[in-house]
Structures are given as structure tokens and as C-alpha cells.
Amino acid sequence: MSSSAAITRVSLPNHVRGGFVKLADFKIEQVAPPSKDQLADNQVILRPIYYSIDPYQRGRIAGVKGSFIESYSEGNAITNILVATVVASASADYQEGDVVIDNDGKWETEYVTEACAISKAPTQYSAEPKDHVGVLGMAAFSAYVGATVLAKPKAGETILVSSASGGVGQMVVQLAKARGLRVIGVAGSDDKVEYVKSIGADVAFNYKTCGNYLEAIKVAAPEGIDIWFDNVGGEFLDAALAHINTHARIIICGAITQYNLSSPDERYGIKCLTSVLIKKASIHGFIIDEYYDTPTHVAFYEEVSQLYRAGKITYRLSETDGLESAPQAFLDLFTGKNFGRSIVKV
Ligand SMILES: NC(=O)c1ccc[n+]([C@@H]2O[C@H](COP(=O)([O-])OP(=O)(O)OC[C@H]3O[C@@H](n4cnc5c(N)ncnc54)[C@H](OP(=O)(O)O)[C@@H]3O)[C@@H](O)[C@H]2O)c1
Hints:
The chain is α/β, with parallel strands linked by helices. It folds into two domains: about 5-135 and about 315-345, Alpha-Beta Complex (Quinone Oxidoreductase, Chain A, domain 1), CATH 3.90.180; about 140-290, 3-Layer(aba) Sandwich (Rossmann fold), CATH 3.40.50.720. About 25% of the residues lie in helices and about 25% in strands. It is built from nine helices and 15 strands. The strands form three sheets. Strands 3, 4, 5, 6, 7, 14 and 15 form a seven-stranded mixed beta sheet that branches. It has a six-stranded parallel beta sheet with strand order 10-9-8-11-12-13, with helices on both faces. The longest helix has 15 residues, at about 295-310. The chain is globular and about 65 Å long. The two termini are about 15 Å apart. The structure holds NADP nicotinamide-adenine-dinucleotide phosphate. NADP nicotinamide-adenine-dinucleotide phosphate binds near residues 54 and 168.
């Protein structure tokens, strides 16, 4: 049954076009809960259990048209991936108590949605709701697609991965290691560097203290880089291009250094692109939603759930409590305060 107590709602009053988003840009309020009586056919009431907090949401906050996903609309609740329990259902496909995934669920502690917008959590791979935003969630799946499908890794090759302790990066490190690669991880603090080594990186270093990027990458990868899995873009992406080997694969997963620019004029201009020509390399950008509900998604679930159950991989979460903590958790992604995959528990 849905409750009658007020629920929490986090919305975006106004788009924030450029620069860093601030806490005051979000509105947190208590509002009346949805009522079971208002459910139309094929609607359900969901109560989120875990919210996913993701860097890509910065783009949706900007309110710019033409991206791969719609902007948030001003005044409405923020939306993103979440795992929830069905608390009331007017759909034959869902019953009270079902655990579901909503890839565009509301930052409200209870809300109404259409049954066709959700899917049952694949509990055959894990009965733990947290895993569906964690080790089996979107960031981990992105690592799988980029590092194992697009990068076509071969044992003995060298992979470099940026933001290596994060939701995507820590899975790249472990999947690459499991495929016999030499793994170099880059992260923004010494404790993150230690973590990256502890999960299998052969070499890891702190990009904030390493000095000259070109030199630091040369020392870490004297044999050159065969796969460059990039989450950050900008100057570090550029420096790594100078060290790629013949037929290198460059996987553009993210570009977090470029998400909070005040204006497009501040975009970092890549200088080492001729390396791609000289080394006959390929650059592959991707957005993970194209791979949902495909055989690749099933292969990911099977491999990663087995490795996880067998204790062969680990997955660090950066977990905060209560939907009220979601805006700060989001801001923390851009200062590196999260350590591991960022999620909010309700
Ligand atoms: N293509 C896709 O479909 C897809 C899917 C998921 C995620 N992504 C992208 O993948 C990247 C990682 O996502 P995630 O969810 O796993 O996030 P994450 O790595 O868990 O968290 C973000 C991390 O980025 C690093 N960072 C923040 N600002 C930075 C800066 N100015 N320079 C360098 N590093 C910075 C910080 O780590 P440090 O402390 O190490 O600096 C921070 O902890 C993001 O760019 C995201 O947009 C893409």
C-alpha cells in the first residue's frame, strides 16, 4: 500500500546552462503522496530504494537541445535510473512488492508511472536491489561494452583507464585484468590509487600530483598503449594520444572535464590527433542505452554476476542516505568526493 505521509521531491527550478551546478539550483520539498485511487489502467506507484547518481545528468540540467537524451524540464522532478518497489499496481504485469528498474524514474520518494516505462529487476542475476544500480548497473555495463566489446582486447596488451576508481573505471580495470591485459589506472587521490592497484591494476598514479601528463604516462606505459579507455577528456585524453601504439583502440566513454565549462569557447582543443592517423588507430564513442536488452546485456549480466558471486571482482559504492542527499552526491562527482559508484539509498 502507498503511504499517506508527505513524500520528498527534488526538482530543477531552472536550467543551469554553464559552469558548476550549485546546491541552491535544486529544490527539495515535501509534497502530497500519490494515491492508489488516482491510478489509471496500466499505471503503478513506485517507492524507490536506490537512486543512481550519474555525471551525464549534467547535460540534462543544462537544458540544451540535440543531445542523446532529453533535458530535464524546468519545475519538474529530476529523473534518472533507480531501483524501486511497486507499492500499488493497476497493471496485470506488476504486483505489489515487485522490485523494478526505472531508467528515467523520478527523484520523488513515491511516484506514479506507466507500467510500460519500467522492467522487473533481473533477479536471476542478483536478488540484492543495490546490485542493479551497482555491480550490475549502467556504469558497470558501460565498462563491459567499452572495454570488452568495442576495444577488442587481446591478452598481453596494455590498457590505460582514467577515473579508474569510479563506477565505470573500477569495472574496466577488473574486466581488463581478467582478460590478461596490463592495466594502468589513473585516479585523483592517493587512496583511490591504492584501491585501483588493490583490484588488479599493474600500475596506477594520481593525475593531480604526477606533474607533466606526457611524462607520467610514458613512465607508466613505456611499451605504449593499445587501448585507451577515457572517462575524462581534455588535457589528459590529449596526452595519452601521444603514447598510443599502432592499431590502438580509443574508447570515448566520458569527458567529465568538459561537462561544467562556462562557455563552449572553453572546450579543450585536442592537439595530438595526428597520432590517430600515424598509428592507424580507431576512436569509438558510445552511449550505453543502445546496448540495453541486447545479447550483449545478457552476456554482461552472466559474466559479471558470476565473477561477483565467485568473489573474483569487487565493486566499491559511494552510498549516501535519503533522497535529500542526492543533489550533493551529484555535485560531488565533479570534485571527486565520491569514491566508487555513487548511489543514494532511501
Ligand atoms: N558512454 C556512456 O554511455 C557512459 C555511461 C556511464 C558513464 N559514462 C561516463 O563515464 C565517466 C565515469 O562515470 P562514472 O559514473 O563511473 O563516474 P565516476 O568515475 O564514479 O565519478 C566521477 C569521477 O570523475 C573524476 N573527475 C571529476 N572531475 C574531474 C576532472 N575535472 N578531471 C578528471 N577527473 C575528474 C573524479 O574522480 P577522481 O577523484 O579520480 O578525479 C570523480 O570521482 C563519466 O565521464 C561519465 O559521463 C559514460
